[in-house]
Design goal:
Pfam families: Acetyltransf_3 (PF13302). By secondary structure, the chain is an alpha+beta fold. The protein has one domain (6-181): Gcn5-related N-acetyltransferase (GNAT) (Aminopeptidase, 3-Layer(aba) Sandwich), CATH 3.40.630. It contains six helices and eight strands; from the N terminus they run E-E-H-H-H-E-E-E-H-E-H-E-E-H. The protein has helices spanning 26-33, 36-39, 51-61, 107-122, 137-145, 175-181, and strands spanning 6-7, 17-20, 69-74, 80-87, 93-98, 127-133, 149-156, 166-174. The strands form two sheets. A five-stranded antiparallel β-sheet has the order 1-2-3-4-5, sandwiched between helices. Strand 4 and strand 5 form a beta hairpin. The radius of gyration is 15 Å and the shape is globular.
Length: 182
């Protein structure tokens, strides 16, 4: 069972936590991922993604204790400001986004640190992977700060808000590296 809500230490936002997505998150979720500066960095959210599609995603992923799942980032007042997600498969991958109005405050770094701890504690994975588009240096810097190392670059699957396939940077974080850094 996932230990939710998961309190995330953050000086400016003492109520920051990760929780399950809720039906009332559909509108804010849709509003964030359909913004071009966010959606173009994500694989599955086209600019015309509907409220009904957001509701369906929440209904499908909210009750899950096993991957794939996506959790809400909540500042403590019930408002969704982003998400973090985990998928197990050929590679155990994380994905994340944050409302641009909340970026640059250390929120995602704190959330990912708590999320990574939870993943390595709750699931049998020895390595976490994240893929980042070439034009997202802030996300690459965040991953490096958390201990991820860049392990490759490839031209691949296009974001639903990009015109063609583009360069993606692959970052990996072995469990042993994470634990040694804690």
């Amino acid at each position: 069972m996932l230990p939710l809500p998961l309190a995330i230490p953050h000086a400016a936002l003492p109520g920051l936590h990760l929780r399950r997505l809720q039906p009332q998150d559909a509108g804010p979720l849709r509003a964030i991922v359909t913004r071009p500066e966010v959606g173009r960095m994500l694989l599955a959210f086209p600019a015309d993604w509907t409220l009904e599609q957001a509701q369906a995603l929440i209904a499908k992923t909210a009750p899950r204790n096993t991957p794939p799942f996506r959790l809400a980032i909540d500042t403590g007042n019930g408002a969704l400001i982003g998400t973090v997600g985990f998928v197990q498969g050929k590679a155990d991958e994380i994905a994340y986004f944050l409302d641009p109005a909340c970026q640059g405050q250390g929120i995602m770094r704190a959330c990912l640190a708590g999320f990574i701890d939870m993943i390595f504690t709750q699931f049998a994975c020895e390595n976490l992977r994240a893929e980042v588009y070439h034009d997202n240096p802030a996300s690459m810097g965040l991953l490096k700060a958390l201990g991820f190392a860049q392990t490759g670059i490839y031209t691949g699957t296009c974001s639903a808000q990009r015109a063609s396939a583009e360069s993606l940077h692959v970052f990996d974080l072995p469990r042993a590296v994470w634990q040694a850094g804690r």
